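Pilot study result, target chain (179 residues):
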Amino acid sequence: MNVLLHMCCANCAIYPVRMLRESRHTVVGYFFNHNIHPYQEYRRRLQAVEEYAAASDLKVIYKDEYLLEDFLAQVASEPANRCTYCYQSRLRQAAEYAAISGYDAFTTSLLYSRYQNHELIQKMGEELGQHYGIEFFYEDYRTGWQEGIKASKAMGLYRQQYCGCIYSEKDRYHPRGNN
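Predicted structure:
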């Protein structure tokens, strides 16, 4: 199959790209991550994807849009539900692009992370696939967690310390119990 892989970051894409290629699929990356904050973090992650793509001969489509205000407008009233919007908005962009560009399927590197809600991602991916008339390719890539970490370190890629949004940054760095 010709698969479009939404890439949340370079590190999370390493294992899925390897597994898709080993299964003889053609893989093209798709970078759209309007949730990442602050802007310097967004640029670091984008640069890491560019470095990884060059090193692994991976074609990547870049939807290089820093839409912080749009993202915050959607999640600010209910930050606890931010992941739902975050998954859906990024998967929607990938599904739509894959469908209009003639891919056989789409998937996401979010499925590599132990910290993401796989059931919700799978459900949304399948619903969006039906809506756009394209297959959502689900695979649980968490089995390659350590392998991906080792490979990203060996490549010297920038390794982020939080999911991406301002709220996950707070969860990572702000002491618990303090407002």
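One observation from the pilot: Strands lie at 2-6, 26-31, 60-62, 105-108, 135-136. A full batch analysis is planned for the follow-on phase.
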